[in-house]
Amino acid sequence: MEFEPTIVSFLCNWCSYTGADLAGTSRMKYAHNVRVIRVMCSGRVEPTFVFKAFREGADGVLICGCHPGDCHYHEGNYKCLRRYHLIKKYLDQMGIEQDRLRLAWISASEGKQFAELADEMTETIKSLGPCKVKNVMETLT
Amino acid sequence: MANEKPKLKVAIYWGAACGGCCVSVLDVHEKLFDVVAAADLVFWPIALDFKYKDVEAMPDKHIDVTLYNGAVRNSENEHIAKLLRQKSKIMVAYGSCAHMGGIPGLANFTTKEDLFKRVYEETESTVNPDKVRPVPKYKVPEGELELPEFYNDVRALDQVVDVDYYLPGCPPQTERFVEVFMAIVTGAELPPPGSVVGANEKTLCDECERKQTENKLIKEFKRPWEIQDDGETCFLEQGVICMGPATRGGCGARCIEGNAPCRGCYGPPSTSPDPGAKMMSAIATMIDSNEEDEITTIVDQIADPAGTFYRFSLPGSIFRRKLFEKE
To answer: Chain A residue closest to B290 (CA)?
Structure first.
């Protein structure tokens, strides 16, 4: 059976979630692997959210926020961008492939882009294979 | 005197530790008289000649308080942790290593195989042409010799046995230990099991006396030797990574007073159990740039995020260890 990854995505309420919603209401087809969690802002996504997602069995994590300059809270997405690069460096040090984490800007009108992103990310994670974090942690206890 | 309160029975043990925690207990100095007046030390390998079989001979829950310092690194550490848990009413994880893994926990960045290869084959001072390595069991004419098994993973104490209290620090401040100890002796009401004692709820920044402004902005991260510290300004504002925002106060800001940034030995506050995650969140907010290229340049100046942010807490963190290909 083909490996079906689980991708946890955090979408900001104002742009990206609305964008994903547009993909849905426009009946666009995209990979079912992306599980959406709505947050108020991409700046709300703490590193803990990302680590916990992997720890609980996610194979990939996707964060989406408003385009630079468009943040509902002015600079939440910039904070997210800075965290993203720091987290990626840390993931690499922990032996977790950096491509398992992705940050993308999706506006409220970009339903098509969101659908494409979901497909693309699913393909990337499929080629990486399952994330081993959860299994390794379980054998430790 | 027949109606005198019975003395507390106290055990102190070191797992994978440097001995500093035991010394921090000795550092009570003249207060030692108060301690021995209130307590009998029934087991303390660093100072007293009791054997494991003496502990094994005790009835269950015979010991009132066990202070276990050090991480769990081999089968001996694990065996004694389980034994002491069985024999003790209160189990205290004493010091950073028992609390979250501590410095020995940094071994979770590598594997047993790599460690053994380095130590028994590669170090500059090693002469070992036959590549002899320690084995847990070895037969000699006189019988079989046994060594503890060295584990691949370092664990914090609560990943092996139930822990009632945590007393963090590398080592814990002796004054804070005496406070906690006296609270137990005088029968003061103890916090609920699982609590961190001898440390504050708030972060070190909350009690730090260095000058700080509301908006910390960092354009360039520096190592401590790269700055001319004025002795007054917040280390983060000078571009030096200080673990203050992700570390409990209560240590008396010993490092800060010595003009060194906090390294995080007191562990994270209860609101953010993963210290590195909290620190990454805080540090990233301070980066003074909105341009992706510049952000990556600034982030690259943090030489070792994992080792810096989880210096005392890798086994107790969300990921617990580095993953390797073959796992």
So the answer is: A78
